[in-house]
Amino acid sequence: MVPNPDAADLVVEAERCGISSVWIPEIWGQDAFTQAAYVAARTSRITIGTAIAQIGARTPATLAMSSMSMQQLAGGRFVLGLGTSGPQVMEGWHGVRFRAPITTTRETIEIVRMIARGDRLDYRGQVYELPLPDATGRPIRSMLSPVAVPIYVAALGPRNLRLTGEMADGWIGNAFMPEHSDVFLRELEAGAAGAGRSLAELELVIPVAVEFTDDVEEAARRHAKGYAFTIGAMGSRGRNFYNSAFERQGYGDDVRAVEELWRAGRRDEAADRVPVAIGLNTNLIGTTEMVRERLRLYREAGITTLQMKPTSAGARLVDDLSLFVELVSQVNGEPRRPPANGAGRTAP
């Protein structure tokens, strides 16, 4: 979603079609909370989540204040989606050192929850000490009434996935292929088990582009090419969380080749080098029956929410939204098949 009234009109239409949630991005040109508030004012039922509010761009207290305000204004429909982003954005755009991302995520979650439940903020962590030591600050309690703020974490690496399983209410996953779901879910499950929880207690949210088409090869190639920027530019050399996720799913040689081409300035060659399978298997592309079959794969893996990124526009977009909701309803009504890789979970 981009910041314009037409996008909000689309959310209103999505709510009418039966879409259950809308997710507001935050990159380096727009913030998530302004748009979330605007959408909340235009809707009445749809859940509104940030995907993702960048940890480090705000203090934990500011995240808590914004989230509590949103939750009260939206009548309990808000979800705080958090993520660390990466060193290029945090250090180049926000001027914040990208240090100890796992510890920073843990402490941010703990502080946001302390504030949201009405505790006096007295916190001693490795990253945050509140109040600051040897300063004149004092522990403060929020002026707002306590309110529940569900926290979802965008995680790709094994350590962050385990932290998400341990602490979060939900997971937002990118670069995800249901054929290799165990790469992600086994880490989430390990983190949950260590905290005495089960994986079924987490909502699992996966972004997918949705394109209904008979020209599957062309669409898959186009979506694959779009990953060249993600693989080549979203991170520093040797520190790209997306590339690591693709490598764990069997595409290590491919992403290394794409990254080298991109960094050499050969952008078109880099786009052509991205495997078509990456574009096809991370999205819902093809005929109605093909999309239905892939929906079954996500369901069998235990994914509870698909974050639909539509590719159509105008009247066709409304038709696609309605068709997508219909297909999801059909698949949810089918008896479950056992997961092919043994890594799925039974969702409620």
Model description:
The structure is a single chain. With 348 residues, this protein is an alpha/beta fold. The chain has a domain at 1-154: Luciferase-like domain (TIM Barrel, Alpha-Beta Barrel). It has helices at residues 5-17, 32-42, 60-73, 87-94, 101-116, 158-167, 182-194, 216-233, 241-263, 267-273, 276-281, 288-301, 314-332, and strands at 21-24, 47-50, 53-54, 78-83, 123-124, 129-130, 151-154, 170-172, 203-212, 284-286, 305-310. Strands 1, 2, 3, 4, 7, 8, 9, 10 and 11 form a 9-stranded parallel sheet that branches. Strands 5-6 form a two-stranded antiparallel ribbon. Strand 7, helix 6 and strand 8 (170-172) form a beta-alpha-beta unit. The longest helix is centred in the C-terminal third of the chain and has 23 residues, at 241-263. It starts with a helix and ends in a 16-residue tail after the last helix. Residues 342-348 have low confidence and may be disordered.
Radius of gyration: 20 Å
Shape: globular
Order of helices and strands: HEHEEHEHHEEEHEHEHHHHEHEH
CATH architecture of the domain at 1-154: Alpha-Beta Barrel
List low-pLDDT spans: 342-348
How far is it from the N-terminal to the C-terminal residue, by CA? 29 Å
- Name the structural class: alpha/beta
